[in-house]
Amino acid sequence: MTDTTTALPPTRLPQERRLVTDLPGPASQQLAERRAAAVTAAVGSTMPVYAADADGGVVVDVDGNSLIDLGSGIAVTSVGNANPAVVEAVREAVGHFTHTCFMITPYSGYVEVCERLNALTPGDFAKKSALFNSGAEAVENAVKVARRATGRSAIVVLDHAYHGRTNLTMALTAKNMPYKAGFGPFAPDVYRVPGSYPFRDPEGMTGAQAAARAIRQIEVQVGAGEVAGVLVEPIQGEGGFVDPAPGFLPALAQWCRDNGALFIADEVQTGFCRTGDWFASHHEGVEPDLVVTAKGMAGGLPLAGVTGRAELMDAVHKGGLGGTYGGNPVACAASLAAMDVMASADLAGAAKRIEEAVVPRLRALQDKSDRIGDVRGRGAMLALELVKPGTSEPDSAAAAAIAAACHAQGVIVLTAGSFSNVVRLLPPLVIPADLLDEGLGVLEDAILGYAG
Ligand SMILES: *Cc1c(COP(=O)(O)O)cnc(C)c1O
Fold first, then answer.
1. Are the beta carbons of 79 and 273 closer than 8 angstroms?
2. I need a surface site. Which of 47, 119, 271, 415 has the fewest CB within 10 A?
3. 96-123 pLDDT, tens per residue?
4. Which of 131, 155, 163 to mutate to test the pocket of ligand 1 (most atoms within 8 A of CB)?
5. Which residue among 314, 344, 374 closes a domain?
6. Residue 269 lies in a domain
């Protein structure tokens, strides 16, 4: 397997899988009891183990078990958990000031993060940015910009989309359970159209044909002149790592240009080197009018952004965007350090090497198991779609059981998908090659050992 760790600093914790108790261990079980009494049952957790420490590609629990992290806290700790450069930047920043509110007395970190976002996002045109706290909050603000800048209100989203859990972003998100069930009414003027899902679309459907299908529905049901923006994830995240057929995104972006609508890329999960480039939109040369960022951008601290064409971002009236904590100075310092690591350690290259290491193994596994309907993704955003043997019928029970088997063996994997039948891999981009290798071995055993 290729070495993915060139030019990375030594880690603090041993990069190893080490199980010293059954999972969850006694200390985790005690915390689970306190949690059950104190924390709403509405907030779930993938694993019942409580974290005590984490570093690079491992999470260590309160019982001393060391788990291989193939989830990065949902694509957040791309530079590695507690990356030393991020920790040092946070330490330095937090010792000076923790908050002033950028809307009261601004500070340089916010400006510098915006400068970097403007330079790194696709498109060689003048850009401006604003910072927020979470992906959902940033998506909401992208919609505000799109509506204000175009004077239109309709927002078009895709089947299988995930954009967050606030009221507007629930409306934008496709999946009812668990994200929307019983939480309506939802924000109006949101329209859903089919995207491109090569595994489930009619055989041979091209990206251009899938775009034409979406565009026909927009024109018939919404009206081209009503559309403020078309909001898409370049590779869908929670929806199941659905990677559209080549040509789909460029055709949709072109339609937006031709019709005065904004093409808005939600790069919250795909951004910051995750797919082997700074942003997934780069892949087919798409230049979104607005790009939404969060998750991986600040090494684990909460930070999000909206970046777009300067004239669009400036079309909003003064004071129209903001928030108490948006662009917190400590989170900005963390983000600048994380972006430095991404550049200096070539984490985009590391993501490509992870793809080169993982995909052949998953394909070989697919040859051995008729439960794997599809292997897909890009860079270090890779997934298996599980089906009833020999069919394309989704098998959510298999995905749940396989994930649980990995968890029991000390490997953190996540599931996804509208049909909850996708096992997804989002390793930290700094994961040592041998640790990734071992984690994949556990996943292989879990799949081949699943008798369903
Ligand atoms: C996670 C995610 C969001 C929401 O981000 P939060 O920080 O959880 O609010 C929005 N869009 C995409 C594509 C995501 O993956």
1. no
2. 119
3. 999 999 999 999 999 999 999 999 999 9
4. 163
5. 344
6. yes
